[in-house]
Design brief:
The chain has 344 residues and is an alpha/beta fold. The structure holds NADP nicotinamide-adenine-dinucleotide phosphate.
Length: 344
Amino acid sequence: MSYKITLIEGDGIGPSIVQAAVRVIEATGVKIQWEKQYAGEDVMDKTGTPLPEETLDSIKKNKIGFKGPLTTPIGKGFRSVNVQIRQRLKLFANLRPAFSFKGVPGAYDDIDLVIIRENTEGLYCGVDYWVDEDQTAGISQNIITRKGSERIVRFAFEYAKNKGRKKVTAVHKANILKCSSGLFLRVAGEIAKDYPNIQFEDRIVDNMAMQLVKRPQEYDVIVATNLFGDILSDLCAGLVGGLGLTPSGNIGDSIAVFEPVHGSAPKYKGQNKANPCATILSGALMLDYLGEKEASKKIFQAVASVIKKGKAVTYDLKQDRNDSSAVGTQEVADAIVKEIRSIK
Ligand code: NAP
């Protein structure tokens, strides 16, 4: 079987880490025809839009996309292309696993959790405007719906059931945001009743941040609204060794787009310095989603082995980030490809 997959290299470090990931994915032997499309800063300069319709049409047609990070101007300029892709393709669930790899300095070595973040509403819904012409006050609305809450919480429980996970924790701020977060929590409690074999609990988001830093091993599947899920998943990335290690998938009813959790890290653009593992592992999540379980496992196994050996790792996985024995993006990919070829 051969898959046609839309490929967006992205901005900043995107082209380099995506190239590394494509090499690793292809080394598994899964047949893929990549359909290259464009989005982000560069295409904005060339075409006047950061998200050409052609790019969206390609993902809609292929039903699957693989992308690098895209830059969003801060405090001005065009709306996040990432958010637009998620909203326009109804990719309502953002799957963000965080797991420990042996050999990563300063990180917990026993974390295995998954954050499932609502991806289309909440504070990222796009209702964001100035109150006055002088821009002295701004409003961003946090719209949470029953429908959106039901589908993300059900997704989290179905994920837990299918992956043999034991517990779902709903994260909220229902003590203060009684309508928006309160609705999300109420719906989570209702859906939980359909899954008596999976433990259900809830945590207020600020406490959750502290609990995750102190006892991350106690968490399994965490379901959260958009902003809380975004922040907590970066926190979890820090717990396992950094953003260079955390993959993600944006999943809807029939379409999915896989990408690393991290952004375009523009300061490392063109330096062959960034860790490609988050993007490579996003490729493994994509293969798992496509049903290519063996190929997916091979990538996880090869990444874990290369990190454990500690020779072919980037600066971020060294005790001292200036350690001159750190290798570059493509050298990490070379080592992972070699490792995959050695797995029987
Ligand atoms: P970022 O690009 O994720 O980078 C933040 C820091 O994380 C980097 O300075 C680096 O830390 C570390 N990091 C990120 N990727 C890494 C990798 N592959 N290997 C090693 N370290 C890595 O976040 P940002 O600087 O806040 O955002 C930059 C741009 O990316 C913004 O325009 C933002 O909107 C966009 N963004 C896009 C996405 C997406 O496309 N899905 C997601 C998030 C952000 P050190 O400085 O310690 O080396």
